[in-house]
C-alpha cells in the first residue's frame, strides 16, 4: 500500500521535471534558430532565403514537437512494436 503511494508520488514529481527539461531544450533550439537566421541576414543573405534555410536546418524543432512525440507513442502502441513476441508452442 505504501509502496504504491510513494511510487505514484514519485511519478508526480518526475513528470513536471521532465516537461521542464523538454521546454528548456525547445527554448534553446528556437534561440539557436533565431541567431542562425540573424547571422545569415547580417552576412548579406536575403531575408526570405535566410528564413527558408533556418527552417530547413531546424530539424530538432520538428522532432521535438509534442504532436510528433505523441504520434510516435500512439503508433508504437497501436502496432505493438514494443511488445515482445513469444514463440508459439505446438
List the helices and strands and how they pair.
Elements: H1 2-42, H2 47-57, H3 59-63, H4 66-78
Helix pairs in contact: 1-2
Protein model, in words:
With 90 residues, the protein is mainly α. The chain has one domain. 78% of the residues lie in helices and 0% in strands. The chain has 4 helices and no strands. It has helices at 2-42, 47-57, 59-63, 66-78. Helix 1 runs antiparallel to helix 2 (47-57). The mean pLDDT is 77.
Features:
single chain; 90 residues; mainly alpha; 4 helices; 0% strand
Question: Spans of 5+ residues with little confidence (pLDDT < 50)?
Answer: none
Order of helices and strands: HHHH
The global form is elongated
Percentage of residues in helical conformation: over 70%
Note the gap between the termini: 41 Å
- Estimated structural class: mainly alpha
Number of strands: 0
Provide a quick synopsis of the model.
The chain is mainly alpha-helical.
